[in-house]
Amino acid sequence: MLMKVLTKNTDYAIRALLVLGTHEGEYVSARQISQQQGIPYQFLRRILQELNKNGLTTSREGAHGGVRLEKNPDAIRVRDVIEIFQGKVELSECMFRKQICANRASCVLRHEIMRIEEIVSREFGQITLGKLLTDLTKLNATATMDHTDEFEIINSGSHEKTDCDHR
Amino acid sequence: MLMKVLTKNTDYAIRALLVLGTHEGEYVSARQISQQQGIPYQFLRRILQELNKNGLTTSREGAHGGVRLEKNPDAIRVRDVIEIFQGKVELSECMFRKQICANRASCVLRHEIMRIEEIVSREFGQITLGKLLTDLTKLNATATMDHTDEFEIINSGSHEKTDCDHR
DNA sequence: TTATCTGACACTAAATTAGTATCATTTATT
DNA sequence: AATAAATGATACTAATTTAGTGTCAGATAA
């Protein structure tokens, strides 16, 4: 892969949000999401807590508790999730500090990188959870028509290899 | 930073190529490049060997030896260098295997990621060493006119923090 | 009162990236 | 011929980041 675009944190978070998005208004437990998506349970728990802290979701403790989508799916951008888990999009330090790079060779390269990073940031900023949910619905619809295979993910083990990873 | 775009390998490699590009036809030693750019010597040596193996440069052993740019700067793309050190740009495994993702949630997300990756790949494919060399020349010209500061990088230590890194 | 949840947080493991060291060989110079 | 300055090859360590696990306290529904 060209470069590490999304870490597992972000990947799992978005998949969890997709599950929550298909159950809007309902509380879904970490256990359920973990099993449905094949995400390691403890890892997922931390991720959900983070989403809570950032106001994307709310939770209810105790039996029949779980996590619920708090914001409108159209108001949740993939970039927001990336920023939670992989840090704020920031321009190169050099520009931020308004200094001229000590090293010119680095500088010309960085200038290009910054330009591309801005493109990437903008692109991820345009993908909303709402859009992904629509895509998911469409995908499920066609798959069902085609009788290709079933919807739910089968494996609940934390190390299943049926799923592609993003590296 | 949003995501790790370039590793040190790639960063150092491009900076080394920029040095070689400003000395076209001449052999420049790893020692010289290391000192001028503040790149750890041994690390740089391995990088230069890799550039050799990939035909971007050639080397001459012995005293007064070094590394020389072999290809035309306009024929060297930043993407080429990235691919040498960070691997081939590849589409997501799912697409490559022409399989439908077992996990639909991953699938819709991956589809977007692939789209963005292709943009990034295209962008890095359009940046040539020749372009960077032109930028560098311009930068040096204006800096000289402005009397802002000197051209050469001063620090030769391997851990200097004056230079911005790309993370 | 019990099973099922989340909150908080400490911890370990795995993978990747960055950097170092060594020895053999080549080559220009003296 | 001897020496110094260079690369080739390759093994190794260190640092950092990413991924994953474990535990205990408290909340809540049945």
TrEMBL record, chains A, B:
Pfam families referenced in this protein's UniProt entry, alphabetically: Rrf2
Organism domain of life: Bacteria
Gene Ontology MF annotations: DNA-binding transcription factor activity
Bilayer-spanning residue ranges: none
Gene3D superfamilies with a match to the protein in the record: Winged helix-like DNA-binding domain superfamily/Winged helix DNA-binding domain (1.10.10.10)
A GO CC term attached to the entry: cytosol
Xref: NCBIfam families: rrf2_super
Protein name, entry field: Transcriptional regulator, BadM/Rrf2 family
Species this protein is from: Chlorobium phaeobacteroides (strain BS1)
